[in-house]
Write a structure and sequence with these properties.
This protein has 283 residues and is α/β, with parallel strands linked by helices. It has a single domain, classed as Rossmann fold (3-Layer(aba) Sandwich), CATH 3.40.50.1820. The protein has eleven helices and eight strands. The protein has an eight-stranded mixed sheet, sandwiched between helices. The longest helix is centred in the first third of the chain and has 19 residues. The radius of gyration is 18 Å and the shape is globular.
Length: 283
């Protein structure tokens, strides 16, 4: 486990490294933390330099002095982490493989947009381009923001109850269990949400809602998009769009799993990821 200070002096980013080899960097979902990748760390650490991180506002990184977060800021931090990994190794590191879930998938997409050919591969789990996962007309999004209602819920009930209300609204709209089909996974996710303060929850929600996704046209990084069969249909459509837009994209669905597909079906997720990574190694 290690940390390094943010360039803006607002705090320090926590990260953990296991194993040796090509960097395989995992970026967690909103209000989760690096622990959500435990099944993948255990599986891949024999063959890769597996890296987990806690984004600003999450886990061991915790709160920072920034008044506002953005997906772009999180991508800045990912780029800084990759530089730190190279400094830690005291050598030029191989091109990394990036794996992001949900919010983390947005962070990885932003990195690919900036660096269309500087990653060896990308795995996007529970991938979406925006929240809500629909294209809203320019100028409408600000007027439709649920942030005031989220802020009220946070002040009255706290992060866990607010997160539950978001889950209920998605289930009511889609009929899907969505987050997870496994009670233990759902409970672990709620525990992580409970570690996030009201202020940090609000900043993360704001970052998700305000993100204006870039086009990934021209991205040459081989990209695998993975969804669970209980994923919200609009999210799946956005993932299919991602896979169709990048030069070398593919999309697949794992049954008996929800948004947290890497935890609901860890063995299956690891298997499809291993196969994908084997194809990259053969290039």
């Amino acid at each position: 486990m290690a940390t390094f200070p943010f360039d803006d002096g607002s705090g320090s980013l926590w990260y953990d490294v296991r194993g040796d080899g090509r960097p395989l960097v995992f970026v967690h979902g909103g209000w989760m933390n690096g622990r959500s990748w435990k099944p993948q760390v255990e599986h891949f650490a024999d063959d890769y330099r597996v890296v987990t991180m806690d984004l600003r506002g999450h886990g061991n990184t915790g709160s920072t002095d920034r008044d506002r977060y953005s997906i772009e800021l999180f991508a800045d931090d990912l780029e800084a982490l990759l530089g730190q990994l190279e400094a830690d190794a005291d050598a030029e590191a191989p091109e990394p493989i990036l794996c992001g879930l949900s919010l983390g998938s947005m962070v990885v997409q932003e990195y690919l947009h900036r660096n269309p050919d500087r990653a060896a591969g990308a795995i996007l789990a529970g991938a979406l381009r925006s929240m809500p996962p629909v294209d809203l007309p320019t100028g409408i999004k600000g007027f439709a923001s649920p942030l005031p209602a989220v802020s009220t819920s946070l002040s009255m009930a706290g992060p866990r109850a607010t997160f539950r209300s978001l889950l209920y609204s998605i289930r009511a709209t889609t009929g899907q269990r969505w987050l997870s089909v496994d009670p233990a996974t759902q409970s672990s996710a709620m525990e992580a949400v409970g570690e996030v303060s009201n202020a940090e929850f609000r900043k993360v929600f704001d970052a998700l809602f305000r993100y204006d996704p870039p086009s990934l046209s021209g991205v040459s990084t081989p990209t695998l998009v993975v969804h669970g069969e209980q994923e919200a249909p609009p999210v799946v459509r956005q993932g299919e769009r991602i896979a169709a837009t990048v030069d070398d994209g593919r999309h697949l669905t794992l049954d008996r799993s929800g948004h947290l597909v890497n935890q609901d079906r860890p063995r299956a997720f690891n298997d499809v990821s291993t196969k994908f990574l084997g194809g990259i190694a053969a290039l």
